[in-house]
């Protein structure tokens, strides 16, 4: 059986591709097969698999939509991660918060963002990709403005502070709708590259916001925390304006609820979702808590180094997909959990010896393992769902189910961004130390590695011969 193609690795979740329809009469002078638009920037005929259509204007339109989609998704990830930057600085701004409360403020955006990923997926077929990009960009004004206001009110109750942090979850939903929308624009031969660029642009937002926002906050005289939110107000407006002016909606796109339901009934969907909590969940969870951990555990450490963790995790994700294509997704997923285990053990040793150097290096190992695992786990999905299928009709059905699995796993995995901060908070509150949380994470990584081996890599198992 041949290895999964790149486009199979990035199939969009729970949606069916737009069916090519007969093109209306093209305007005079338009190239044959050129896309034809209706009012409201709706394109009524879209068939990227037609080479004439693609050369006659389809490629240019797809690339234009991709560019503005990357910008909007990047901004969404920035806003999603914004509280990870602000929380360590709140005590200095007059807020009296326990460490438990600080971890709540970091965790709740991930909880909301993960929950929004499913409805955001189905919003694109319902409202149109361009229209929903405008709406989702404008929704980022809410968390940005709320943060800008609340950080100037030290007397604000924790409940109000938590509600403002929850609004940042709107940024987490953007990933699902953006990936869904872009998947419709490109032919199968170019879909993987396009979605890879789109995903990379989003993931980089987590590290970039941790690099640039602290500099914005301290620019000029004094520390102005409200700038962390205010800077994204014009950016959100620009993203919405760009989408409104330059992006397009595609007619004929429909939600494939049947494929989504079939994926939800398949045990492999939930096994892979469990594994993805360990990979992507570790990335988004550690990225959220890393600045606060540096601030509280090593007060003299340079907080501006925190962005390197998220950056390493984002850059190693595509590397994980490339390596998994050669050695198999299951093998690399097991390896990634081994790397995560080593990183967590190093963090335990660093906390015990109070070594900043070891702690920082251990987190770089954690982010590397998480990034590699993100790409490897996603690579497993199409291989798992095509295993044992030979005829083309059944393969087409299984590919749709695999797409539904990707949607579910993407949402479930994001809950790791909630579990990790809450795990640290519970450990600190109960035992007075972060170390017990790391031991729980280590146990989880060992269990996840063992699960991957037993189900997908063990000699004699049903899927071992499929090079999953």
What would you say this structure looks like, in words?
There is one protein chain. The chain is mainly alpha-helical. It folds into two domains: 18-252, Growth Hormone, Chain: A, CATH 1.20.1250.20; 255-468, Up-down Bundle (Growth Hormone, Chain: A), CATH 1.20.1250.20. Helices cover 74% and strands 2% of the residues. The protein is built from 19 helices and five strands. It has helices spanning 6-9, 51-80, 82-86, 99-127, 129-139, 141-150, 158-167, 169-185, 188-218, 227-230, 232-246, 257-265, 267-297, 307-327, 329-353, 356-386, 392-414, 416-431, 435-457; strands at 15-16, 37-38, 42-43, 249-250, 254-255. The strands form two sheets. A three-stranded mixed β-sheet has the order 2-3-4. The chain has a two-stranded antiparallel ribbon with strand order 1-5. Strand 2 (37-38) and strand 3 form a beta hairpin. Helix 4 packs antiparallel against helix 18. It is globular, with a radius of gyration of 22 Å. 56% of the residues are buried. The model is unreliable at 1-32 (pLDDT under 50).
């Amino acid at each position: 059986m041949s290895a999964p193609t790149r486009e199979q690795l990035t199939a969009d979740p729970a949606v069916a591709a737009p069916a090519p329809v007969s093109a209306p009469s093209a305007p005079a002078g338009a190239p044959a097969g050129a896309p034809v638009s209706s009012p409201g920037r709706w394109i009524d005929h879209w068939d990227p698999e037609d080479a004439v259509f693609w050369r006659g204007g389809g490629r240019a339109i797809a690339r234009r939509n991709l560019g503005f989609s990357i910008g909007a998704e990047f901004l969404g990830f920035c806003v999603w991660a914004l509280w990870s930057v602000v929380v360590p600085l709140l005590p200095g701004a007059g807020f009296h918060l326990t460490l438990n409360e600080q971890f709540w403020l970091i965790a709740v955006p991930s909880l909301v963002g993960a929950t929004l990923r499913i409805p955001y997926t189905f919003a694109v077929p319902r409202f149109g990709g361009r229209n929903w990009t405008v709406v989702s960009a404008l929704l980022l004004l809410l968390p940005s403005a709320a943060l800008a206001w609340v950080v100037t009110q030290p007397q604000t109750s924790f409940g109000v502070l938590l509600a403002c942090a929850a609004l940042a979850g709107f940024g987490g939903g953007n990933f699902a709708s953006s990936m869904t929308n872009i998947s419709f624009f490109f032919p199968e031969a170019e879909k993987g590259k396009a979605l890879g660029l789109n995903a990379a642009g989003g993931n980089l937002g987590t590290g970039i916001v941790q690099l640039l926002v602290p500099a914005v906050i301290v620019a000029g005289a004094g520390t102005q925390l409200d700038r962390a939110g205010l800077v994204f107000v014009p950016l959100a407006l620009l993203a919405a304006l760009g989408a409104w002016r330059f992006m397009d909606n595609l007619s004929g796109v429909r939600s494939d609820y049947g494929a989504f339901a079939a994926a939800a009934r398949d045990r492999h969907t939930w096994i892979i979702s469990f594994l993805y909590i360990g990979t992507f969940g570790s990335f988004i969870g550690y990225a959220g808590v890393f600045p606060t951990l540096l601030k509280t555990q090593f007060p003299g450490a340079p907080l501006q180094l925190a962005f390197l963790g998220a950056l390493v995790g984002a850059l190693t994700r595509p590397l994980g997909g490339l390596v998994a294509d050669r050695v198999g997704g299951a093998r690399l997923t097991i390896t990634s959990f081994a790397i995560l285990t080593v990183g967590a053990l190093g963090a335990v040793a660093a906390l015990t010896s109070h070594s900043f150097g070891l702690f920082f290096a251990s987190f770089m190992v954690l982010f590397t393992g998480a990034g590699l695992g993100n790409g490897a786990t996603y690579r497993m999905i199409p291989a798992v769902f095509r295993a044992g299928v030979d005829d083309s009709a059944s393969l087409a059905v299984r590919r749709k189910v695999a797409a539904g699995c990707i949607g579910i796993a993407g949402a479930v995995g994001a809950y790791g961004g909630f579990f990790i901060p809450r795990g640290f908070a519970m450990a600190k509150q109960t035992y007075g130390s972060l170390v017990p949380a790391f031991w729980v994470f280590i146990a989880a990584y060992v269990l996840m590695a063992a699960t991957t081996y037993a189900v997908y890599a063990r000699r004699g198992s049903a899927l071992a011969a499929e090079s999953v």
